[in-house]
Task: inverse folding
C-alpha cells in the first residue's frame, strides 16, 4: 500500500553534483543573491595560492553550502570551515591542515537567510 503512494523528491534523492549545478544556476539568475565586489580577488583559504579561476565559483560554493546546511541543520561557520579546508603543502615540509576562509562562508550564509 505504501508503494502506491506518490513520494516527494527531496535534496537527499538528487545527486549532489546535479543539485549543486542546478541550484548554482538558479542563484546566478536570481536577483536576490548578489556577487560581492571582492569575489574575484579573494582566496578560498590559507592553503591556496591563487583565487579560483571559474567565473561561477561563488555561486557553486553557495549552492554547496546551502545543501550542507539543509542536510545538517544547525551547521555553523566553524564546521563549514573545517569541511572546505585542506592540507597546506610546503614542499618537502610536513603537511598541516588549514581551514577555509570564514568570510566567504559567512557572506554566503547571510545572503541565504
Result:
Amino acid at each position: 500500500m505504501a508503494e502506491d503512494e506518490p513520494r516527494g523528491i527531496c535534496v537527499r534523492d538528487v545527486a549532489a553534483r546535479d543539485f549543486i549545478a542546478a541550484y548554482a544556476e538558479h542563484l546566478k539568475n536570481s536577483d536576490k543573491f548578489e556577487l560581492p565586489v571582492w569575489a574575484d580577488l579573494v582566496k578560498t583559504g590559507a592553503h591556496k595560492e591563487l583565487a579560483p579561476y571559474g567565473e561561477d565559483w561563488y555561486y557553486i560554493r553557495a549552492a554547496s553550502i546551502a545543501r550542507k546546511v539543509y542536510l545538517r541543520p544547525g551547521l555553523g561557520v566553524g564546521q563549514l570551515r573545517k569541511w572546505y579546508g585542506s592540507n597546506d603543502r610546503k614542499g618537502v615540509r610536513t603537511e598541516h591542515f588549514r581551514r577555509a576562509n570564514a568570510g566567504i562562508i559567512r557572506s554566503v550564509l547571510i545572503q541565504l537567510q
User: Anything to note?
Assistant: The beta strands are 86-88, 96-98.
